[in-house]
Write a structure and sequence with these properties.
By secondary structure, the protein is mainly β. The protein is 8% helix and 36% strand. The protein has 1 helix and 15 strands.
């Protein structure tokens, strides 16, 4: 205990030698300038739920009413258009992720998933049921998505008893059941640990873990 006390005394004494007056350098906030991005003036809506820098350097900003792509100068908005089948499947966007294949996915609350076609800037829609989709989402109300460290896309629902992982090459989906106590509660986020474990954050139910290689 005495050795720790000497170290503390030395640190305090050294600080006193360096700083003869009030040590404002340790506590001042005004030297770091935080300003509102000019992109905010052109967003589809001001409630931002997610943000991503893609592999080409674009900043994607997800709001409660569409997606926005920002290049540092201009904002390009992507919204739902009932007359355009290549627009976002639903106006209420909830998240964005870019998988290892380079695909950009945007989730919605009510319209399932959307995969960006980088050539046309339209979207391929993946819904709960689709004649062109070999897998099947449990719900179109998706509250969270996250790119998997080993590929694919984790999918969390706002109202389901399970979560899913999409193989974005074969477009097949595997589902994982949640314990009853967490069933039906919105999934907020996913994180993959270094050992391959997947941690699932659930609103009102804590954190759950999927074992590696499950």
């Amino acid at each position: 205990m005495q050795r720790h006390g000497c170290k503390l005394f030395f640190v305090v004494a050294l600080a006193g030698l360096i700083c003869h007056g009030p040590c404002s350098w340790a506590f001042r906030h005004d030297e770091v300038l935080v300003t509102r991005s000019k992109a905010s003036d052109f967003l589809t809506q001001q409630t931002v739920s997610d943000i991503l820098e893609d592999s080409t350097g674009f900043i994607w900003i997800i709001t409660a009413e569409g997606a926005n792509r920002y290049d540092g100068h201009e904002v390009v908005a992507f919204t739902h258009d009932r007359k355009n089948p290549e627009s976002l499947s639903h106006q209420h966007t909830s998240g964005i992720a870019q998988t290892a294949t380079g695909d950009i996915w945007i989730s919605t609350l009510g319209g399932g998933l959307n995969r960006l076609n980088s050539t046309t800037l339209g979207f391929d829609r993946l819904r709960k049921a689709s004649a062109t989709y070999s897998g099947q989402l449990i719900s179109d109300n998706i509250s969270a998505i996250e790119a998997g460290g080993s590929g694919g896309l984790w999918i969390g629902y706002a109202d389901a008893s399970s979560f899913s992982k999409l193989n974005d090459e074969s477009l097949t989906v595997r589902h994982y059941d949640l314990p009853a106590v967490a069933s039906g509660k919105p999934i907020i986020d996913f994180v993959e640990g270094r050992d391959g474990s997947v941690y699932i954050a659930i609103d009102g139910a804590g954190v759950y873990t999927l074992a590696p290689n499950s």
